[in-house]
Design a protein that fits this description.
The chain is mainly β and 215 residues long. It contains three helices and twelve strands.
């Protein structure tokens, strides 16, 4: 689940990128443009489709979800769970069991869940390459590939950025074990106004939930 949250929050590109000399200029311009577009978007709400493909087992699973993001805070809802992160604590509510696990992520763990901190994973140690212009749905997109410079559990990450809005619309993460995760953003809503408590678990809304404090 942390991996999924880390992937979806990669779309929050609120900071600059630092690239090695092996990265091409076009890829750098596209990713920096996406970073600026997100920084100017303010509060973001987006619907998405998450797909997990296992080429070895020849399986394909997908589900719809919704994420709201502001700075390094977010709330994401899927058919199985809801996760809140307020910049310090994280709550994950499992709908079936009605359990809520509360944690205070470490710095390393925050890189896998926080919309802003996750960027540090991509600021160094990766080569990026411009793949080209493509059509995704009815949109013209620019495609960029990121490849880790050192041995990693995944081998490459492919991002598609809308040529008009400069917002990422697709991300595909390919693991060395043959599994691939894909997120397609169906719709963006920007400049959203969120309440101060939006990114914190509210016990009053889930009276039957069991809160398990793992901090």
């Amino acid at each position: 689940m942390k991996t999924f949250i880390g992937i979806i929050t990669f779309f929050i590109l609120s900071g600059g990128y630092v690239f090695s000399q092996q990265n091409d200029k076009k890829a750098r311009e596209i990713l920096n443009g996406a970073s600026t577009a997100f920084a100017n978007a303010g509060g973001i709400k987006a619907s998405f489709v998450f797909t997990l493909e296992n080429t070895k087992a020849k399986t394909n699973e997908s589900f719809n979800g919704m994420i709201s993001m502001l700075g390094n805070k977010f709330v994401v809802e899927t058919p199985d769970y809801i996760a809140w992160y307020n910049g310090t604590n994280q709550w994950v509510y499992m709908k079936t069991s009605e359990e809520v696990n509360m944690t205070a992520p470490s710095e390393d763990e925050t890189q896998m869940i926080s919309p802003s901190a996750v960027l540090t994973m991509y600021q160094k140690g990766f080569n990026c390459k411009y793949i080209g212009e493509k059509i995704s749905g009815n949109k013209k997109v620019d495609e960029v590939e990121l490849v880790p410079q050192k041995k990693n559990e995944w081998k490459r990450l492919v991002i598609q950025v809308d040529k008009i809005t400069q917002l990422p619309v697709s991300i595909r993460l390919y693991y060395v074990n043959g599994i691939a995760n894909r997120i397609e953003i169906a719709k963006y809503q920007i400049k959203q106004q969120f309440s101060s408590g939006m990114f914190t678990f509210d016990k009053s809304k889930y009276p039957n939930a069991e809160l398990i404090d793992l901090r």
